[in-house]
């Protein structure tokens, strides 16, 4: 149990849970099967007295397998992230088990705000290259970078949020 003083409070652990949702579209890729794996993003311990932001990262893994010789050799995809429980990209916040919130932002590997393409956010596109051998997995891995800005006044406790990951093929 963290100690709380008049000068500072520790909020720990701060975690972001990424919930997966994959949508496999029709067309030529209907016989290709894909699996999305997501690791939780943890910011670790946040201390309001620290002068620098607290950071964390999570991996999104996408594995696909062709089952027919007529399947394509690549699967293009687009990944978008939801805004979390606050419902706004402008006010993304981890909610505490006491009262209070801890603001955060999510970024693409190239440093843009990751979202669904609205409100100044970006989505990430890529391609899974499928091996020529049927049934063999092709994969792509993306990193979600998170930042909790420094200097936020929060109560000690556990803070979390849930963000939906949507993959479109």
Automatic annotation (TrEMBL):
All residue ranges annotated as the Spore coat protein U/FanG domain in the record: 28-166
InterPro entries: Spore_coat_component (IPR053167), Spore_coat_U/FanG (IPR007893)
Keyword Signal (UniProt): yes
Keywords: Signal
The keyword Signal belongs to this UniProt entry's keyword annotation: yes
Residues spanning the signal sequence: 1-30
Pfam families: SCPU
PANTHER family: EXPORTED PROTEIN, PROTEIN U-RELATED
Official protein name in the record: Spore coat protein U/FanG domain-containing protein
